[in-house]
Amino acid sequence: MIMVGAPVLLIIAGVTWNNSSSDQTLVPERFGNAQAVIQADKDGAGWTAGQVGSLINGQVVRVAGGEIGLEIGDQLRITAVGLPVGEMSGSGLFRLRSGHWPTADDQIMITKDLARRHNLRLGATVPGFSWHQASRTVDLHVVGIVALPEDDGSGPGGGADVVTGRSQLITTDDPSQVSFLVYRAAPVSYDEVRRLDLHGLDATSRYLVDHPELVPGQDKGDDQQDSSWIAFYVLVGGGLLFEAMLLAGPAFAISAARQRHTMGLIASNGALREQLRRQLLGQALLLGVLAGAIGAALGLVTGRYISVVYAWLTGSWAAPNALSWSPALVAFLGAAVAAVVAALLPARGVGKLDLVAVLRRRTTATRTRTFGPVVGSIVTAAGLAVALVLGFAGAPAMPPRYIMGACTAAAFIGAMLILPWLVTALGRGGRLPLSIRLAGRDIARQVGRSVPAMSAVLVASGMFAVMGIAIASDDHAQAEAYTPFTTMGQGTIQGPVEDMQTAANIIRGRHPDWRLTPHSSLGDPNYSGAEPTSTVALVPKGCTAQKAVIAETQADTDPDADSRCASGRSDYGEAVTVVPDAQIASLGLPDAAAHVLAGGGVVLVDPPLGLECGPQPCALSARRDYLTGNKVTLVGGLPKGDAYVPGKPVTLTAAVIGRADLSGPQLGWADSTIGWISADAATKADLPNSVVLWTVDAPHPITTAQEQAINEVVPSHAQLLVERGFQGQLASAGRVLLGIAGALVIVAALISTALSQVEARPDLATLTAVGAPPGLRRRFAAAQAAILVLVGIVAGQVVGITAGIAFAASNSRGDFGGGSGQLTIAVPWQLSVLLLVGAVLIAALLAVLGAWRSPSMTRRLG
Q1: What does R_g of the chain's alpha carbons equal in angstroms?
Q2: Does the predicted model carry a pTM greater than 0.90?
Q3: Beta strands in 336-440 (DSSP E)
Q4: Alpha-carbon gap, residue 142 to 136, rounded angstroms
């Protein structure tokens, strides 16, 4: 029952947990106890609660989100939410964990995370001030620890660390952070929402979110995303149910074997073979229905409250997830079908009982038909061959991923058809130790129990190999393309200019021996989202400076803008980085390019760093688009009214290099750099530039603890990033895959071994009675589990590694939406060996522990 119910639990819990981002689930976090949330389209700060209340019936409460300054050692910028003190407890936006609700404007509540980071306790007094505006410092008293919704943009309080009644201390440059909550008994109708919209107020009604069918022309933009999630869950859910069927197969096989004598007695009294089969299938159906019902119920409960528990552990709060009744019904029916299918083979065997042998309690080994291994070998070889051909050569008509998926599934099925022959061959072990011979013969004698268990191991091991190779190959390709953004163990500060300066001052105060250097980029990188104060355009061939500036800055507003003259900065984020003369050597450029850069020229990288091109030609090319002879033209632009006025174009000598020519760190802009210019050359050419990052050079490598401590006190929009080399997914994802595959493998082996031990109790008692030592019985159990795991993993790895290589080759060519165009295949042999050795040893050890007790022996009298 566990083997059938557990996959149902996992499927339903996963589907229900995925509902945590649905509109219906987020209603309590977005609205609290309010019937509607209203925001101004343009200038939310210009509206008051009274003005909004004059347009809609009900109590209107203004909620301001933004930033507040707190003096906790340093002057820190903290995200806060403000509303009248008397409305906090009844708003429904917060959950009080300890302390009490504020009763005065100078009292605040803070989150558990903020209290932990800065060692704040209830009763503490913290000086507070307005971060962006000049204001005097006021004492704020901490009276409560509060949980707020997680920072998912769902509600007015999401992501804040402080709740205060002094809304005047909260400043923001984002009008959308000013909200108005409408409290009343009746829901806000669609007509009221439309009426508010006429006044420039964007209202979201709680009732309409729960009943989207009442909104005419409701957006269906998420249908594609929903269908992709459905496809994902169908794939994962189908795989789990198939694995459950394989795991449950041995249990039904041994159950049928234990009922053979009873079935024989029933058949000897006139029961038809069809009746015997129906009895066993009926038992399987009942078991599947019970397991599916219990698994679905537990899955709904687990998935509904997993977000609540996680939020409680992290100090925030979340509403229970919406229940997924339709997937639960499908999984419930799938569990019943999986149980019945798992019992088909044992039921078929019951229908072929040899009554004489059964009533005399004799068991004969199952004969393996020749066509099974032959057909299995052909199907496996053909499936893998086609997958390899498609992986390395591609498919001209249908997308290869579909054909390769079908071929891989066929290869796994073919390998499972070969297993009965392998199992039978194990029973003919020659001069092996006695315990191994006994284990092999028992496995061969019970093909109906052994083959499903080995198949479960094969599938788990094979899928582990396929996914491991996919992740390892992707990591290897990214590692080859990775360019460090600064020296290993050193850091950069990135963020808005003002915040980077503040962060640099904080770091200087804490670490006076660290060297901090600002670095610039041509133009304004527009990090903060405000209007750029300047721009610099690379002038494409065939374009004038005027057209280049217009195309760069007014492509969306000027009908005369020529997209061919845009340098692509807004699309690709590339920039020409200004390099201090003293740091030119640290870029690791070729000697000729470094000479051009030091001489006042420009070095361009082709294609730009961070631009994924795949096997097709890059959309942006320095040689093709900008280079005329060995010269490029740049032009600066400054805003004038609603347009940018180009400055005087400047033509500089240029050197073009490839990505492979770089051997040094790229000063933090490795993901968005098209080239470099020296600081002296930028100044002489009068090209506007702005600070885009600071480098942080410490006398020793910056530790993770130091990095975390600094990021806790710098402004929230600035961040210290320390170069620690390429961090791939294989380390973390490999552990997860190894754990899942190892658990499935060990469970399958132990189920089969435990069932075998139960069935073999009389034989084990006989061995003990004739003087066999206890170690033989334990070695027998260990050998049985080890053989099941070893054969299943090896067969699965052969199929999985071959299929994984095919998928990795196809992905390198870009068949799955990415790829660099260069063949990249990496096989994580260490993980495969670890799975093989670890699973064999663990399964054998657990089997020994399970067989530690001596069997009970009954003395016969008479």
Answers
A1: 35
A2: no
A3: none
A4: 19
